[in-house]
Amino acid sequence: MKDSSRRGFMGKAFGAVAGVGAVASLYAMKKTWDPLPSVKAAGFTTLDMTAYEGNVLVTEKWRGKPVFVLKQTPEMVEFAKKKNELNRLIKVGNDYYMIVLGLCTHLGCIPGYDAEKKSFLCACHGGTYDSTAMVTKAPPPRGLDIPPFKVDGMKVVLGEEGPEYKKLLQEGVTLPV
Ligand code: FES
Predict the structure, then answer these.
(1) Model confidence over 9-26: pLDDT tens digits?
(2) In total, how many domains does the chain have?
(3) Whether residue 113 sits in one domain with residue 28
């Protein structure tokens, strides 16, 4: 190999190595920019539905927002059937649950639950909701919204759009949040 062509070969070889190095460091930089897996998973909240009791309101958190979970007693299920509101409840195993965003559909206050009356009252402007979170007194324009969810055995994953949630959207039972 002549001296000049050897230099040319060495130059190319060095360039190739440098190129690999550049790609490797770009890859390392991209890894640094990508969010951590735990952050990506932060949009989801998994609820263990065996942990709830009938007519005891529990406030969970999903993406920083309050989510009301209210397991229905047999009497509440009968009430929902009579009012034609069973479709607002989520069936997990043999039980029904109200799972809704705890933000009033009027101006976003957090309603309070009265377990004796089985009714929610929004103290801001007096709006009320029943035990399926359907509005029973204005000014709220509609029932409390149902967050995206997926039923997974005895668990409900908030933030995932399962077939049950998509059906509720299609039927207009809830609005997308
Ligand atoms: S914000 Fe709830 S009634 Fe107005």
Answers:
(1) 555 555 555 555 555 555
(2) 2
(3) no
Q: Which domain holds residue 60?
A: 41-170
Residue that is written with structure tokens 């029904």 in the block: 96
Q: By the 8 A CB rule, do 72 and 98 touch?
A: yes
Asked if 17 and 87 sit in the same domain, the reply is no
**C-alpha of residue 100 to centroid of ligand 1, in Å:** 16
What gap in Å lies between CA 99 and CA 87, rounded to an integer? 12
| pTM, to two decimals | 0.77
Report the nearest-CA residue for atom 1 of ligand 1.
107
For Cα atoms 144, 91, 119, give the angle at the middle one, nearest 5 degrees.
35
Question: Does 78 fall in a domain?
Answer: yes
- Which residues are near ligand 1 (CB < 6 Å)? 104, 106-107, 109, 122, 124-125, 127, 139-140
Residue 177 lies in a domain: no
What is the per-residue DSSP string for 144-164?
PPPPPEEEETTEEEETS--HH
SS3 137: strand
Among 106, 128, 135, residue to substitute to test ligand 1 (most atoms within 8 Å of Cβ): 106
Q: What is the model's pLDDT at position 45?
A: 94
